[in-house]
Predict the structure of SRPBCC domain-containing protein.
Amino acid sequence: MLGIFQQSSLRIEVAASEQVLRQSLTNSAKLQEWLAPVRLDRGLSEQLQPGLTFTSWVGPIAIQQYVDQVESNNLRLLLSKGIDGFHEWYWGDGWVQSRLEGISLLPLNLAQTGSLLRLRQFLSE
């Protein structure tokens, strides 16, 4: 994989309960809503479950995601293709944290910051 090793951890406050955050991060329809303009596979199952593999696109760049772990307050995705690494999400009442690590030509910290801000905006609507 060509690219630069990058790692980033961000945590923000949000106006949402732990349950609402879990739905926003593990329900594919809600995920697609707030992740736009990132596109997800069509026909993706309703809930992300361990063992599920799907592809997302950032413009023309495909990122394959394997759902490694889904718990009551965390989600771990193993990434390949456009990013070789992992993305972990943790959440609780009023906060969400994202940890992203991998090799990529994409500016991961910028993309991660944008995603968290879109999630915050989605939750405030």
Notes: The beta strands are 4-13, 39-40, 53-58, 61-70, 74-81, 84-92, 95-104.
